[in-house]
Amino acid sequence: MKTFNILSIGLLLSLVSCTQVPGGKGDSAIEQKIEALLSKMTLEEKLGQMNQISSYGNIEDMSGLIKKGEVGSILNEVDPVRVNALQRVAVEESRLGIPVLMARDVIHGFKTIFPIPLGQAASFNPQVAEEGARVAAIEASAAGIRWTFAPMIDVARDPRWGRIAEGCGEDTYLTSVMGAAMVKGFQSDSLSDPTAVAACPKHFVGYGAAEGGRDYNSTFIPERRLRNVYLPPFEAAAKAGAATFMTSFNDNDGVPSTGNTFILKDVLRKEWGFDGLVVTDWASASEMMSHGFAADPKEVAMKAVNAGVDMEMVSYTFVRELPALLKEGKVKEAAIDEAVRNILRIKFRLGLFDNPYVDEKRMEVLYAPSHLEAAKRAAVESAILLKNAEGILPLSASVKSVAVVGPMANAPYDQLGTWVFDGDKTKTVTPLTAIRELVGDRVQVIYEPGLAYSRDKDQSGVAKAATAAARADVILAFVGEEAILSGEAHCLADLNLQGAQCELIAALAKTGKPVVTVVMAGRPLTIGEEVERSAAVLYAFHPGTMGGPALADLLWGKAVPSGKTPVTFPKMVGQIPVYYAHNNTGRPATRNEVLLNDIPLEAGQTSLGCTSFYMDAGFDPLYPFGYGLSYTTFEYSNVKLSSSTLKKDDVLTVTFDLENTGSYEGTEVAQLYVRDKVGSVTRPVKELKRFTRVTLRPGEKKTVTFELPISELAFWNIDRVKTVEPGDFLLWVAPDSQSGEEMAFEVIG
Q1: Band of residue 26 on the pLDDT scale cut at 50, 70, 90
Q2: Which of 3, 62, 83, 414 has CB atoms 3.0–4.6 Å from 144's, for a disulfide?
Q3: pLDDT per residue over 573-617, tens digit each?
């Protein structure tokens, strides 16, 4: 038997941080260059560095602004020839020769599109996140892009919010690990590497908690919850060496992020020691007027700069209003100088002063075979097997015909998912194409989509699809969401399958043939009825360019599912917010509740038991966090703790045996959860503290070891101090957040 040791997140992040390029405030060579350049700059040139514009068609106009030193960064220019032309003006024709920083939203791929970040999180594999970001950076930098507005590491517990697709789900720890890996992938071992792209963790902070799951909405997150749940992923990203940060659209407790001194100065700068660049989100500075936090553009500029913002994205209040604010003493020149230092520091770290131009021949790296293979691996590991009745999957050799049905079976654009500005749908390999290529003449493929697209309500093709499907041995139904139904400004109040997809699944089920449902979506959907009507369900989120080959391999057993839910799947929207790491309440649900249709007539007021649940939905979700099946089975046993009593500076070692008790080689994501039973403030019923992927052959058993420093049990307590409080703890080693044998240990003073 083999023993596996799992690194702590603290050690992981320290290793990541050690790989970053020198160039912090302790790097005297860079700091001397910054000060020398700053001393030569006029006020107008300083304000120009603080100004980011979005590229537009007239390159002459942009060149004129750059020549006068009025632009520090350009957003959305992806033609390397134009990039070099603009950069040449900045370096060779402007007074000080300061290069322009080229930026783009590269969220889950530039040309080669990986699964959406929520899908990548389902892999529970930081290597998937790092590799995806590395491929994205290599391809984007070939177009001259050196700054991306990713990763999005907002903890999100409301799938109505369209932007849940861009993040890593509901869990603080999982988001921290995956986010740090993405930072490492984007930035490589050195920011000065021409293939490195400066990362920009967003949205700082709390945006994922937008009220009602509605984009741009307000949040109300008290400081303790902010520190315990929403800030840790950003701290992890900062420790991983993130070059920049982006403020968020939301106001929290009445203060917009772009004008929030507490998060930008007290936390980010003073507590975490961040010395990079802080940029606003698109026009989030001027939107402080809509919030009612600033009366006019002048007050916008004053509040943003004084709060600690360095660069303004596209709303131009800095360049227009700061000169007057300086004269009036409402903004100090020292604040402007510090912002410019932070901007110049990133440009020096990226090596732009020494190597400002992009090699236009590097465009050949787009869609490189190694990139496509990495995207396929990511799509395989991101897929979650939610149901597999009677082992219908993988499809056996006895299956001689399959019906491929549904609006997502051959939707090359929508398969890519949200935030794909540069992906080419002609490069997408759809499930239909991949299945035909995989099975060749061995299996008859009957294709009848039934619906033209996911929102299609025209049921005229449903009966035709069902009739065709009835001729097949197995029905493969590809349903879900078009790309446009998730992402920024694409929130939903109803999470059922759109259009007539529910009717399509029902019609297919009535044929009596086994239905294998594959869902491609940007969020968890309320698919309880569809699950009931299906023999098997694979949830693939939006799997990207190579989603088709990945799904074909999974369906025919060339690959085995290993994904786990990175967010809780609700039974119905009325359960939201529903997440595993909730507080227990004074009257926790017993899971033996009497549900709505089982209530006796004229039942007494207290006859149902006074606990916290919904009469129509019960307490449990459709699928808990961390859930996912395999084609094989795994058995956990012999869980042991190194000690039942530990001190605050000790390390708890947890060992257990994991055995593959099935007939396929497979990978299990083993998870470690902890509960602090009693605290100075109530603590969650469970918190994920470790996870690892373990691959086992049939019959193989391995001993796995988790090492958990007791210091990682610290939280911000009643006194607003981060500490480990002595007391009793519970621990679970499990395949998901609702399973596992409970064990106990104690932390003493």
Answers
A1: low
A2: 83
A3: 999 999 999 999 999 998 788 999 999 999 998 888 899 999 999
Q: How far apart, in whole angstroms, are the C-alpha atoms of residue 157 and residue 166?
A: 13
DSSP states of 644-690 as a string?
SEEETT-EEEEEEEEEE-SSS-EEEEEEEEEEE-S-SS---S-EEEE
Q: What are phi and psi of 152, to 5 degrees?
A: -90, 120
* Cα–Cα distance, 142 to 80 (Å, whole number): 7
Nearest-angstrom CA–CA distance, 387 and 158: 23
Residue 198 is given by DSSP the state B
- For the question of whether the overall pTM of this predicted structure is more than 0.70, the answer is yes
Residue 2: band (very low, low, confident or very high) from pLDDT cuts 50, 70, 90: very low
Q: Hey, which residues are catalytic here? A: 281
| Residue 88: DSSP 8-state | H
SS3 423: coil
- Burial label, 649 (beta-carbon count in 10 A; 0-12, 13-18, 19+): exposed
The two structure tokens encoding residue 712: 């990682």
Query: For 416-447, what is each residue's pLDDT tens digit?
Result: 999 999 999 999 999 999 999 999 999 999 99
CA angle 546, 549, 552 (to 5 degrees): 145
Instruction: Spell out the residues 6+ positions from residue 25 whose beta carbon is closer than 8 angstroms to its own.
Output: 31, 275
Across 711-732, b (16+ Cβ under 10 Å) vs e yields ebbbbbbeeeeeebbebebebb
pLDDT at 7: 42
In this predicted model, which residue has the larger pLDDT, 12 or 431? 431
Per-residue pLDDT of 673-701, as tens digits, reads 999 999 999 999 999 999 999 999 999 99
| Cα 646 to Cα 712: distance, rounded to the nearest angstrom | 13
Q: Which two tokens stand for residue 148?
A: 């991306």
Q: Which residues are bridge partners to 558 per DSSP?
A: none
The first and second tokens of residue 160, run together, are: 């109505």
Cα separation, 117 vs 139, in Å, equals 18
Tell me what pLDDT residue 57 has: 81
How far is CA 546 from each of CA 215, 372, 423, rounded to the nearest angstrom?
Answer: 30, 7, 12
Alpha helices in 422-578 (DSSP H): 431-439, 462-469, 501-509, 528-533, 547-555
What's the rounded Cα separation, in Å, for the pair 559 and 550?
A: 8
Question: What is the rounded CA–CA span in Å between residue 460 and residue 447?
Answer: 16
Q: What is the 3-state secondary structure (H, E, C) of 39-56?
A: HHCCHHHHHHHCEEEECC
Question: DSSP string of 457-484?
Answer: --GGGHHHHHHHHTTSSEEEEEEE--GG
Helices (H), 470-546: 501-509, 528-533
